[in-house]
Amino acid sequence: MTTTLLSTAGELHARTRAGRRAVVMTMGALHEGHATLIRTARAIAGPDGEVVVTVFVNPLQFGEGEDLDRYPRTLDADVKLAGQSGADVVFAPAVDEVYPGGEPQVRITAGPMGERLEGASRPGHFDGMLTVVAKLLHLTLPDVALYGQKDAQQLALIRRMVRDLNFGVEIVGVPTVREEDGLALSSRNRYLSPAERRTALALSGALFAGQDRHAAQEALRARAREVPATRARAEALSAIGESRAAADAHAVATAVPGGPAAVRAAARQVLDEAARLDPPLMLDYLALVDPSDFTEIGDDFTGEAVLAVAARVGTTRLIDNVPLTFGAAS
User: Which annotated residues bind beta-alanine (predicted)?
Assistant: First the structure.
């Protein structure tokens, strides 16, 4: 399909709109993860709607010593990939189009949630992110905006901003896209040497280890619920050839520490081993949090959670996460 490249909000507002407008916001250097977002946007907008992909490297999101100047800028390739994925428009404004008076004196603050995890590691990052997202929502006027779940804290904050400040837009989260070896797709992956990439696989490896531990625990809990914790239960298990240890599934499944503590321990073991590799993985944080406010969950927690990790390998900082649900309905 033909994809139109625009650089001003006036050009975008002049377009005739029929169906829904779906927007995918990016900083460029598009990859398959972005392509998945665009294809999802195309499906939501439908044949009569419009898909707009923004390409803007936001200076407010980069702190001192971060890679603003180093960040890849590949607009021609981005327009091509966006078009192949179903975009009608690529909106690539200059900095003075987004910030016509220079850096804005009035900004959106991310509040306490924006000071945790990524916010603690990158002070001011989420204030800059929310400010530009708010501006781009006003400039593009979408019905729906899509963001990747790889940036889980970012997605949670955007949802909170839209709800708290009454933005009239639907926010859709799209699952993380991974490479064949499990590494979450990121524009920063291109900075990794082959040896650094091998070490970086510990991020997804740790998350999968925690995910596996969680799945095993939930399976034990499900088994414990199926048969009452009585002598008859033990006899029933014995009758089908299960071991004495299996007869104690109920106790194992409800033991403390278990649940979140065991998930954290499984993930941390992988990260500790990666810290001894050459080159080493330098852990920033491993956290198991409530996605509503990104505070750590306790061992009695039930509901949706996010297991998140951030680390440096060489000079490259990477993040990743997986969603988990504790205490599935009995």
Answer: 61
* Catalytic annotation present for 250: no
Residue 126 inside a domain? The answer is: yes
Mark whether 11 and 130 lie in a shared domain: yes
Residue 52 in domain = yes
Strand, helix or coil for residue 296 = strand
Largest Cα separation within the chain, whole Å, is 77
Q: Return the CATH number at 246.
A: 3.30.1300.10
Residues 112, 50 share a domain = yes
- 20 and 99 part of one domain: yes
Report residue 18 CA to chain centroid gap: 31
- Rounded-to-integer distance, Cα 265 and Cα 300, Å: 16
Amino acid at 105: Q
- The annotation places the binding site for (R)-pantoate at 61, 154
Annotated binding residues for ATP, written as ranges, equal 27-34, 148-151, 177, 185-188
Tens digits of per-residue pLDDT, 67-87? 777 777 899 999 999 999 999
Backbone angles phi, psi at 21, to 5 degrees: -105, 125
CA atoms of 284 and 113, how far apart (whole Å):
17
Domain that holds residue 240: 190-325
Tell me: pLDDT of 252 over 50.
no
* Helix boundaries (H) for the chain: 9-13, 32-45, 75-85, 95-98, 118-121, 125-140, 152-164, 194-226, 231-239, 244-247, 249-254, 259-274
Length of the chain: 330
Number of structural domains (the chain) is 2
Catalytic residue among 13, 34, 138, 214: 34
Q: With respect to residue 330, please indicate whether it lies within any of the assigned structural domains.
A: no
Weakest-pLDDT range from 50-54, 56-60, 140-144: 56-60
